[in-house]
From TrEMBL:
<comment type="similarity">
    <text>Belongs to the glycosyltransferase 10 family.</text>
</comment>
<dbReference type="InterPro" id="IPR055270">
    <property type="entry name" value="Glyco_tran_10_C"/>
</dbReference>
<dbReference type="InterPro" id="IPR038577">
    <property type="entry name" value="GT10-like_C_sf"/>
</dbReference>
<keyword id="KW-0735">Signal-anchor</keyword>
<feature type="domain" description="Fucosyltransferase C-terminal">
    <location>
        <begin position="143"/>
        <end position="316"/>
    </location>
</feature>
<dbReference type="GO" id="GO:0032580">
    <property type="term" value="C:Golgi cisterna membrane"/>
</dbReference>
<feature type="signal peptide">
    <location>
        <begin position="1"/>
        <end position="16"/>
    </location>
</feature>
<dbReference type="GO" id="GO:0017083">
    <property type="term" value="F:4-galactosyl-N-acetylglucosaminide 3-alpha-L-fucosyltransferase activity"/>
</dbReference>
<dbReference type="InterPro" id="IPR001503">
    <property type="entry name" value="Glyco_trans_10"/>
</dbReference>
<keyword id="KW-1133">Transmembrane helix</keyword>
<protein>
    <recommendedName>
        <fullName>Fucosyltransferase</fullName>
        <ecNumber>2.4.1.-</ecNumber>
    </recommendedName>
</protein>
<keyword id="KW-0333">Golgi apparatus</keyword>
<dbReference type="Pfam" id="PF00852">
    <property type="entry name" value="Glyco_transf_10"/>
</dbReference>
<keyword id="KW-0472">Membrane</keyword>
<keyword id="KW-0328">Glycosyltransferase</keyword>
<dbReference type="Pfam" id="PF17039">
    <property type="entry name" value="Glyco_tran_10_N"/>
</dbReference>
<dbReference type="GO" id="GO:0006629">
    <property type="term" value="P:lipid metabolic process"/>
</dbReference>
């Protein structure tokens, strides 16, 4: 079993090669989705030298690297940086959305030096979540359960595969719906509401390798429910999670089969509790701040001698 947990790749205290000269400047070409976010000193996350991270474009000519967030520039080529770049300046393509929701990848051809995304094979790997190894074992107490299955959904698109699956599944098992068209799920009460459920449908909006989002990490694992996942293959999930920490829809030939299994577990506390055994040694990460993503870039720039330099993203990102 090869699970990917927080180690030297994420929060581990890796020591960067000593750098000559002053700290690196990283320009955020835009704030992600146009929203200013809190920045943090990178030495709080990693054992590295701090970078000067700024969103002030006057630094463009001096910046050692420019992080370009795909969603903020993809509608219009002119919103990409236009000025000439110094020979050593590195451009970082940053995207946490899936290929199905990443239009105009072609605009990005022959511009970027490093990729930064949820894909494990990115130069800078910025997953939505990960597991951390506890320094000593804990007796995890499962939150009190009074309800069965919940799903929270903001973008209601009946043509989407996950809705078709849901329509079939709900014929055989009751599902409480939350989200804009359903029961409200206030952000500050999300954990306490969802924790009452035995199962949470962590259904991704599109199916792509490694595309496993906060639906799994925060909504399901963060609130202490058992995730029922629809997304990439089970094998792909098992790169991130122990096999007995989630239920995959592909484990069952039909939605009816899944519904039956959930009902069996509902009546069998011993089997249900097995889905929490992994928590003796592991815990899911807290919600990932943008500042951590930026600091991963800071670290990569200090450590990476070579990188992939993907000329055309379209071929790689699909
Ligand atoms: C941007 O940086 C320049 C150069 O350091 C500085 O003069 C200017 O005041 C900054 N602008 C803002 C809005 O901070
Ligand atoms: C970054 O990529 C661009 C486009 O491929 C290339 O022209 C430039 O030389 C690269 N810069 C570095 C520092 O590797
Ligand atoms: C967990 O609970 C068991 C049984 O109550 C106890 O024997 C054990 O020491 C506990 N382990 C930890 C790490 O607290």
């Amino acid at each position: 079993m090869l699970i990917w947990v927080a180690n030297s790749l994420t929060l581990g205290r890796l020591t960067a090669a000593p750098q000559i000269g002053s700290e690196l400047t990283i320009l955020l070409w835009t704030w992600p989705f146009g929203q200013r976010t809190a920045l943090r000193k990178c030495s709080e996350f990693f054992d590295i030298r701090d970078c000067h991270i700024t969103a002030n474009r006057s630094w463009y000519h001096k910046a050692d690297a420019v992080i370009v967030h795909h969603r903020d520039v993809c509608n219009n080529r002119e919103s990409l940086p236009q000025g000439p770049r110094t020979p050593s300046q590195r451009w970082i393509w940053f995207n946490l959305e899936s290929p199905s929701h990443s239009p105009n990848l072609g605009f990005m051809d022959h511009l970027f030096n490093l990729t930064m995304s949820y894909r494990r094979d990115s130069d800078i790997f910025t997953p939505y979540g990960w597991l951390e190894v506890l320094s000593q074992p804990q007796n995890f107490s499962i939150p009190a359960k009074s309800k069965l299955v919940a799903w929270a959904v903001s973008n209601w698109n009946p043509a989407c595969y996950r809705f078709k699956y849901y329509e079939e599944l709900k014929k055989y098992i009751h599902i409480d719906m939350y989200g804009s068209r359903h029961m409200p799920l206030p952000w500050d009460r999300q954990d306490s509401i969802l924790s009452q459920y035995k199962f949470y449908l962590a259904f991704e909006n599109s199916l792509h390798e490694d595309y496993i989002t906060e639906k799994l990490w925060n909504n399901a694992l963060g609130s202490g429910t058992v995730p029922v996942v629809l997304g990439p293959s089970r094998e792909n999930y098992e790169r991130f999670l122990p096999p007995d920490s989630f239920i995959h829809i592909n484990d069952f030939p039909t939605p009816q089969g899944l519904a039956q299994y959930l009902q069996e577990l509902d009546k069998d506390p011993v089997r249900y509790q097995r889905y929490f055994q992994w928590r003796t040694w592991l815990k899911p990460s807290e919600e990932t701040p943008w500042a951590l993503h930026f600091c991963k870039a800071c670290r990569a720039l200090q450590m990476t001698e070579s990188y992939q330099s993907i000329p055309t993203l379209v071929k790689w990102f699909q």
